[in-house]
Amino acid sequence: MRRLTLTVLLLALVAGSGCMSSGTALAPVASGTGTIQHSDLEGGFYLIVSDDGRKFDPVRLDPAFQRDGLRVRYVVRPRTDGVSVHMVGAIVDVIHIEALAP
Asked: Is 29 exposed, middle or buried (0-12, 13-18, 19+ CB in 10 A)?
């Protein structure tokens, strides 16, 4: 009986810890180099096109980086809590961005 009680308690702890951690996990980040690109769709916006062809739709891109053709190094985190009318790539928060020397 004692062994059954301990097993049930252990299973409850494992199941409970899984539930708590799943809601607090952050989405993985993406990083690399790419180019800022301006699109005229939907009134105009800027996106990041990575060197390997992935496209990122930043939620807020600092105006200093809103220059078509600007080469950048970036770190972004995908968002899953919204949609965009741009429909060009993953919606992301910019964690870090820096201009690369021409």
From this structure: middle
The string of pLDDT tens digits covering residues 20-41 is: 334 445 668 999 999 999 999 8
82-94: average pLDDT: 80
Q: Helix, strand, coil shares of the chain as percentages rounded to 5? A: 25, 35, 35
Residue 75 reports pLDDT greater than 50: yes
- The C-alpha atoms of residue 74 and residue 96 are separated, in whole angstroms, by 6
* Residue 63 CB-density burial (10 A; 0-12 exposed, 13-18 middle, 19+ buried): exposed
Query: Which structural domains are found in the chain, ordered by start?
Result: 30-99 (2.40.50.500)
Which is more confidently placed, 18 or 80?
80
